[in-house]
Amino acid sequence: xxxxxxxxxxxxxxxxxxxxxxxxxxxxxxxxxxxxxxxxxxxxxxxxxxxxxxxxxxxxxxxxxxxxxxxxxxxxxxxxxxxxxxxxxxxxxxxxxxxxxxxxxxxxxxxxxxxxxxxxxxxxxxxxxxxxxxxxxxxxxxxxxxxxxxxxxxxxxxxxxxxxxxxxxxxxxxxxxxxxxxxxxxxxxxxxxxxxxxxxxxxxxxxxxxxxxxxxxxxxxxxxxxxxxxxxxxxxxxxxxxxxxxxxxxxxxxxxxxxxxxxxxxxxxxxxxxxxx
Length: 277
Fold this sequence. Notes:
By secondary structure, the protein is α/β, with parallel strands linked by helices. The chain has helices spanning 2-6, 31-42, 57-66, 87-101, 119-131, 145-154, 173-181, 202-211, 215-225, 237-244, 253-260, and strands at residues 8-10, 16-18, 22-23, 47-49, 75-80, 106-111, 135-141, 161-165, 185-189, 229-230.
């Protein structure tokens, strides 16, 4: 399993990114997030996804220093928050995140949300960091096709990743096609939904029973078969291990279609077009 977790997809610039990682949104700063990150790395995870606004970069950094895995084997993502967007303020925010994480470089730096009137200046700052080799890859989060069109109209470097809400009730067909066409790797945040609603879905449970897997494992496998990078969040070691156990089965085309058919265009997070920035 550990080998599978280190395996990755190749981004447009040639950098390899693991297809499954640990998300730490809402993981509390201090021992909770430190233990989650250590448990994940011990289980073979090599990708950890955090953000400035999560308030736990220091804990993530501490766990990385203590995990015993060489830095070059890890893939660390963080994001610039809305209030810090703009050219100079993004460069400052990057330094703050880097210091909190205790790292010399970031593997993937993302714009957290498309803040109108600011994300182009923010992107110029990310391009600068990328050219200076302080980040190995740059991308965006929560960008719709029209945001990406607008961004790429004036940018030198195309986003390598777009991290968005993606799960069986919101399968983002149009956005997936757009990202594929433009060579942008799509990544799912909150792939298992929130509050456990998805994990109780009868169709997902039924499909899981067929393969001897949980509904969560079925969803994560569905992500992978759609070529989506996925970062399930958990602070429980048993669940972290379970979420990674998705490489020993393949969903049939029929089961993939059944899961696709669950789409309701239902968001659990904010709508990027109507978000109070």
